[in-house]
Structure formats: C-alpha cells, structure tokens
Design brief:
Metal Transport, Frataxin, Chain A; 6-stranded antiparallel β-sheet; 2 helices; alpha+beta
C-alpha cells in the first residue's frame, strides 16, 4: 500500500488530468456538466437522470467512482503507473470514458489527457 504522501501526490495528479479531460469533453459533448466540489468530482447529466461522483479515499488509498448504481474502487498500480480497476485492469481515464459512453450511448466521447 502507498504511504499517504505518495498516495496524495499520485491521486492529485490523476484527478487533475481527469478534471482537464472532463472539462474538454464537456465542451465538446454538451450532454453533461462537470463540477469540482471540494475534492469530489461530480458529472451531472443534462437529462437529470443521474450523476457520477469521483472521490479519493485516502484511508484505503483508492479512488472511488460511483456511477450507474455501481461503486468502482481503483487501486494504484506501479506497473501501469496509474490508478486501475483491479477487476478489468482499466485505468481511471479509460474507465470514466467507458462509463460516459455507456451512460450517454455516445461512442464519440473521448477523454484525453490535456
């Protein structure tokens, strides 16, 4: 398990990259709105159907995503150099991109590091 300082550093870097990618995708898509709320990222959908929440969970050194009535818990992977979902091996950015595509039924949504 990462020590707290390393976790915070890696987490901040990963979440900032995700934030910038979501802002760019929000402008391109227009079908969702991104909000940064004191460390919790909220992705709100224009149809009001639901929202996704991305938050760091420092005590367990994970990034949690609540989306589509499911909780996704990502762990740091030294090998990948990223937070990944152990079950699928998906990195944070790829997972959020897939969830957005599925929820909006829009395969054109892309999240790319800015």
């Amino acid at each position: 398990m990462l020590d707290e300082t390393t976790f915070r550093s890696q987490c901040d870097r990963a979440l900032e990259a995700l934030k910038q990618a979501l802002i760019a995708a929000e402008e391109a898509s227009g079908s969702f709105e991104f909000e940064d709320n004191s460390g919790a990222m909220n992705i709100l959908f224009e149809d009001g159907s639901s929202k996704f929440v991305v938050t760091p969970n420092t005590p367990v050194r994970q990034i949690w995503i609540s989306a589509q009535t499911t909780s996704f818990k990502l762990d740091w992977s030294e090998a990948a150099g990223a937070f990944v979902l152990p079950k699928t091996g998906e990195k944070l950015m790829s997972l959020v991109e897939r969830l957005l595509r599925e929820h909006l039924n829009d395969p054109s949504i892309t999240l790319e590091p800015v």
